[in-house]
Amino acid sequence: MEPTLKDKVEELIRENPVLLFMKGTPEQPQCGFSMRVVQVLENYGVEYGAVDVLPALQPLREVTAEISDWQTFPQLYVNGELVGGADIVEEMYESGELAEALGIEQPESTLQAAPPAQSPPLQIE
Amino acid sequence: MAISNDEVRLMIEASLPGATVEVVDETGTQDHLRATVAAPQFEGLSRIEQHKLVKQAVQTRFDDGSIHALSIKTSVPE
Fold it and tell me: How far, in Å, are A1, A40, A68, A110, A121 from residue A93 at the CA level?
């Protein structure tokens, strides 16, 4: 029998310790909330799988509602469990809980971009 | 269709007795709201479970289109 969409989603969740369902791709997020989660994951430097939900938005809403009782995207799964969307991910990033869930050290740097490179001192001859 | 901050607050308070709830309108259009909720019922629950409780409290107003987006911040009261 052909695997259903639900089977496929469950398999992805099982096989990717860190899995993000998002609108767009990490390179080109199509939604600010998805982009915020990508930034957190990139900042951790963890390996993660990313699924673009836009090509099958409504079916994926229905499937994730069934699996996790949650139907908005992004959705971040860690070790098979739904962690949350952008609000929860950012909150857990700031508190260090997400690093703990991922089994990594909380990085020193914050979400802000790297400080601007020091410009060379100007001199007036 | 819009909904007042107070109506959302009352729905959450009714569903989570004893909770401290603050609701603000994020965009000035009354359909993108932010709720900050501290509820004793959150004790021992994961964040996602806490958020689900808040969402469930106002689900009917999502379903009828009154609310498009609700940002949620949860905590367990000290």
Answer: 41, 7, 21, 9, 36
